[in-house]
């Protein structure tokens, strides 16, 4: 396994029956913005801490730029870590906080001040260099933490849920700032997050983790459009999941039987499933059309009662329930407002067979 940062069959167990990280292998490229994404307890932070040297693997190896990291202490690794709580020194000025790591390594005062001011300029905070952290907003403190991590120009910048303490609007602005910084510097960024929107918006590739294992690695588009499992499909974005059974298959297609949809034929690769296998049909809410009349032949369709409506300004969504109890989500089309549909109404929900994902269970 080759790459700028190589994680080769790494495991870590703290006690109990299940490892926190279980036989994980990843190859991350130079200058890549990579995300470790998953629910709480999936092992992503433990994996990040092993890259940083704050934890040692129970087995496996980690290498950066061809240099073995396993067993190397944190202060000798070409990485820096940004914590979610910033960890700034309140009695120091902003520029002194940024200088601190250089001071520890014995850099001359004039040199470290120049480098610290350059780092603050990168995060657009040079004019606040003499303020104390307590005089800054949450977003500004996060930028100081970034400048402090970047001042030593690490080969890899590790970010542990760095934006979790920020409000929604500031968080979105900082996501754009992180992406800008990474493009400008060209160094490898690895971010840990449980926020799928955050990972999708800033990372070039994402590893989705669950139960200590990597479930799928891919670009944001690959994970959204072609999830490899029911877990990944459900974790990345909103999706409708419908249980079904394979009834027949042919060259490039599978016929499934699903409650209330009846027999449906959908495109499928030749290596997915066999007759009588249980599978999951999945469709994104934005693919679902809403209508008063039964749709034309060729569309997968089911009638359902509108249970709930939600207006988000730029988009509106509904949840509808079929006679058999299947809940389906749909996005209202552009130009259709929540006032044109009402709770308790019955509507037809439909989508094209080629818009259906087939997931093995």
How would you concisely characterize the structure shown here?
With 361 residues, the chain is an alpha+beta fold.
List the helices and strands and how they pair.
Blueprint: E1 5-12, E2 21-28, E3 33-37, H1 44-52, E4 59-64, E5 67-68, E6 79-82, H2 94-104, H3 109-122, H4 138-150, E7 156-160, H5 168-185, E8 188-193, H6 196-202, E9 205-210, E10 213-218, H7 220-225, H8 230-235, E11 240-250, E12 253-258, E13 262-267, E14 278-283, E15 289-291, E16 300-311, E17 316-322, E18 327-331, E19 346-351, E20 357-360
Parallel strand pairs: 3-8, 3-9, 6-7, 7-8
Antiparallel strand pairs: 1-2, 1-4, 4-5, 9-10, 11-12, 11-14, 12-13, 14-20, 15-19, 16-17, 16-19, 17-18
Description:
The model has no long low-confidence stretch (mean pLDDT 90). A hairpin with a 2-residue loop joins strand 9 (205-210) and strand 10. The chain has a 6-stranded mixed sheet, with helices on both faces. The protein has a 5-stranded antiparallel sheet with strand order 13-12-11-14-20. It has helices spanning 44-52, 94-104, 109-122, 138-150, 168-185, 196-202, 220-225, 230-235; strands at 5-12, 21-28, 33-37, 59-64, 67-68, 79-82, 156-160, 188-193, 205-210, 213-218, 240-250, 253-258, 262-267, 278-283, 289-291, 300-311, 316-322, 327-331, 346-351, 357-360. Helix 2 packs parallel to helix 4 and helix 3 (109-122) packs across helix 4. The chain has 2 domains: 5-233, P-loop containing nucleotide triphosphate hydrolases (Rossmann fold); 238-360, OB fold (Dihydrolipoamide Acetyltransferase, E2P), CATH 2.40.50. With 361 residues, the protein is α+β, with helices and mostly antiparallel strands. The longest helix has 18 residues, at 168-185.
């Amino acid at each position: 396994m080759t790459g700028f940062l190589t994680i080769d069959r790494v495991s870590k167990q703290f006690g109990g029956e299940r490892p926190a990280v279980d036989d994980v292998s990843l190859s991350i490229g130079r200058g890549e913005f990579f995300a470790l994404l998953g629910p709480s307890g999936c092992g992503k932070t433990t994996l990040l801490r092993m890259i940083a040297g704050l934890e040692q693997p129970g087995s496996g190896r980690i290498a950066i730029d061809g240099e073995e990291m396993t067993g190397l202490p944190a202060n000798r690794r070409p990485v820096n870590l940004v914590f979610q709580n910033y960890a700034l020194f309140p009695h120091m000025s902003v520029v002194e906080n940024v200088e601190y790591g250089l001071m520890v390594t014995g850099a001359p005062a004039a040199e470290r001040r120049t480098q610290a001011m350059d780092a603050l300029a990168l995060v657009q905070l040079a004019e606040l260099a003499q303020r104390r952290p307590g005089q800054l907003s949450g977003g500004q403190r996060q930028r100081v933490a970034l400048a402090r991590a970047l001042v030593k120009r690490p080969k890899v910048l590790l970010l542990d849920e760095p934006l979790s303490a920020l409000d929604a609007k500031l968080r979105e602005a900082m996501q754009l700032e992180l992406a800008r910084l990474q493009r400008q510097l060209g160094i490898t960024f690895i971010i840990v997050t449980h926020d799928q929107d955050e990972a999708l918006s800033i990372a070039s590739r994402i590893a989705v983790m669950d139960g200590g294992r990597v479930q799928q690695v891919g670009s944001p588009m690959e994970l959204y459009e072609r999830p490899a499992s029911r877990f990944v499909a459900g974790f990345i974005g909103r999706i409708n999941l419908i249980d079904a059974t394979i009834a027949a298959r042919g060259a490039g297609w599978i016929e499934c039987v699903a409650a209330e949809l009846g027999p449906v034929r959908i495109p499928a690769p030749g290596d997915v499933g066999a007759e009588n296998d249980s599978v999951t049909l999945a469709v994104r809410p934005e693919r679902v059309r809403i209508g008063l009349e039964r749709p034309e032949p060729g569309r997968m369709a089911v009638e359902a009662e509108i249970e709930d409506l939600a207006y988000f300004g730029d988009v509106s969504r509904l949840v509808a329930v079929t006679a058999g109890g299947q809940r389906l989500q749909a996005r209202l089309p552009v130009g259709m407002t929540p006032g044109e549909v009402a709770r308790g109404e019955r509507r037809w929900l439909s989508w094209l067979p080629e818009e259906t994902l087939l997931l093995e269970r």
